[in-house]
Amino acid sequence: MRVSVVATVYNEGNSIKTLLDSLLNQTRRPDEIVICDGGSRDDTVAVLNEFSQDMPGLRILVEKGANISRGRNRAISQAAGPLIACTDAGVRLDPRWLERLIAPFEAGIDSEERPVEAVAGFFVADVSGPFQTAMGATVLPREEEIAPERFLPSSRSMAFSKALWRRVGGYPEWLDYCEDLVFDLRIKGAVDGPAFAWAPRAVAHFRPRTDLKSFWRQYYRYARGDGKADLWRMRHAVRYATYLILVPALLGHALWGQEARWLGWLGLICGGTVNCARPWRRLWLLANDLPPFAQLQAVLFVPLIRLVGDLAKMAGYPAGLNWRRRNLRRSEIHWRDI
């Protein structure tokens, strides 16, 4: 089967080499690689051109101002292969990533004896140091936490037929973030039964953010994308209720309550522990190689990362809703369909 690997990039001069090196070292080499650059202002295109000398199948497209969705759609439209494997800059692909990602297509049918049209790969934290280890444990799930039938894959590790991409209308070019989630939901709505075959060993190693400022910006944009696409209303409502009603009530009782102030403090401690419990469980495995003091630092970083991420989402979501109110008269995807 002819397989085209596609990606879209913007100002990735410092990270694109890692992706390209990992593509060069695949046990199953892609038949072609199509990368769309959105008008980078650094040396991304120069690095791509340099690699093209050793990668005859590398095709480079440049479209200034293209967002992620437009870049992916442009790369896919120019790809020759009937199978599309998607990834991103900023990742390091396991040497057997492509081999394992397309294996379900080569098998022909899934567990329910239907033709395979889309495959969900997986991604894991590629971390170093206590802060980044805590970040990986906080934001990235582990394989055992995934329910394959409900999993919506990231476009840093997924594959689908070009025919399916056409059928669902491609990536939503009106959306700058959360575009792969909406694309997944389009696929889910177009396929009877489980939408994606599950290939957890098709792994992309992903480096989480290394500081709180870039993490805030990332999660603000994610939540703004949720608002633009009208996604996850209940999740965001619960977050607002927790931080704007429950936490102030417990804090007020802990500081100014006339009786049983300890109930307020106990509620805050229990709530914080529940909020951080899953990242701390992941950290137990992810931080094994860190020295004891660095492990303690990572444990303490988790609540701070949780707080910053939640506040960023609370700031980004209404910005997205406001954009939606001003720009979209008719929803392309309704939250009740999710």
List the helices and strands and how they pair.
Elements (H helix, E strand, L loop, with lengths): L2 E7 L6 H9 L7 E6 L6 H9 L5 E5 L5 H11 L4 E4 L4 E3 L3 H11 L10 E8 L3 H11 L18 E4 H7 L10 H12 L6 E10 L5 H18 L3 H24 L4 H26 L5 H36 L11
Parallel strand pairs: 1-2, 1-4, 2-3, 6-8
Antiparallel strand pairs: 4-7, 5-8, 6-7
Helix pairs in contact: 5-10, 5-11, 6-7, 8-11, 9-10, 10-11
Mean pLDDT: 89
Number of E strands: 8
Percent range of helical residues: 40-55%
Q: How would you sum up the major sheet?
A: 8 strands, mixed
Oligomer: single chain
What's the CATH class of the largest domain, please?
A: Alpha Beta
- Structural class estimated from helices and strands: alpha/beta
- Order of SSEs: EHEHEHEEHEHEHHEHHHH
Give the neighbour order of strands across the main sheet: 3-2-1-4-7-6-8-5
Q: What would you give as the CATH superfamily of the largest domain?
A: Spore Coat Polysaccharide Biosynthesis Protein SpsA, Chain A
CATH architecture of the largest domain: Alpha-Beta Complex
User: How large a portion of the residues is in β-strands, by DSSP E?
Assistant: 5-15%
CATH fold topology of the largest domain:
Spore Coat Polysaccharide Biosynthesis Protein SpsA, Chain A
Please give the radius of gyration in angstroms.
Answer: 21 Å
Number of domains: 2
Low-confidence stretches: 333-338
